[in-house]
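REVIEWER CHECKLIST
Item 1: Sequence provided? yes
Item 2: Single chain? yes
Item 3: Sequence as submitted:
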Amino acid sequence: MDLCRSLPNHRLPLLGLCLGVVLHGCSPSNKRGVYPSIEQGAMRSSITSWMGTPYRFGGTTREGIDCSGFTAKIYEENGLILPRTAAEQWRVGDKVHRDDLVFGDLVFFATSGGSVSHVGIYQDHGSFVHAAVSKGVSVARLDDDYYRNSFVGARRVQNAPWVLADDQTGHVAVVTGFPMVLDQLPVSEAAALLPHRRAELELTVHSSGDLVFGVGAGLFNLLQLSAMLPVLQALGTGSPGLRQPGYSLKLNLVEERRYLPVLSLGYEDRPVEVFDDNVEELRWGQRRGAFLGLSKHYRHSSSFLLGSGELELGLDRQQGFDRFAPSELGWHLALRQQFFRRCQVLVEFGGQQRELALSVGLAVALTDDSLLEYLLRNVSASEQATGPTRSRALRLNYLLPF
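Item 4: Structure as written out by the authors:
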């Protein structure tokens, strides 16, 4: 275990933040490459030589070692320097479904809460080797109740990019995975759920001066519940007030595998901004209906500038923004592309039968548990369109385990 009344005012600090991330991601290195296929014989010999080593929190030697110290040592002996902690190792390589595991994959667990806190190396036939508190370096099984209930996911290090260490003594794995799961698109609900046991706090600042407070919780990669409450003119000049709250429920039907996308089904009764033709201004309405989402990750690029990406297709049956309006079939097609480790560009195109809209966003991971998004919703919509219209928002998300 391991250790908006006016949104344009936010553009300069956000631009400065992104520039800093970009410059950090562009730091020079002497040599780059990708980690080749694992030499099983050599790695098995390394593992065998460490068997029986006692556990020591923070340890990295044969006198005592912890879980991430053990996985780091095995990979270091086989040509790759991994990050020191389990949480950082979780962001190396490509995500692998439990049923597609092969020898050498890293398997991760949340043994002390909702975040990654333990890691081991998969062997064969459902077994993995790890540094356990009670037994030291030993073999365990994924189907044991304790590890089955705390299993978070797995990563494949093969083809992970590396850079040559400053002292040229080894190849250092590049952390390429985006640190957070984005469970929302600029407009629509995403197919992805909050991972394992995670709670989410959300604050959205709209260009109209309205705020939306949100809370959510994800349970074991299967279920997510969210609730939101608009506070009108909290940052504006109009009369403050509360709007009808909303909620969403999302259920994971199919986990992502090598050839299968994530498939999720849900229902939402969500407050959204709409354009009122009578007063010619934005107002709040409710969007109600069921939705279905499919998403598929694609592998990270070896260019070191682009990280992983995700394609998503969604369908929904919405009652509309008026309670008595007829329901309509809607759809969206979305793309997320990570770059420079902590940034993602979001593009969403979709609509309903009588309207189409393009929405874009930029997400920046401030820390491994907090995210700032700048959203331009329905940028292609007419200024006088009925239904959703152009709007800007700044959204801050914070995740915490429970």
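Item 5: Key structural point noted by reviewer: The chain is about 10% helix and 45% strand.
Item 6: Recommendation: ____
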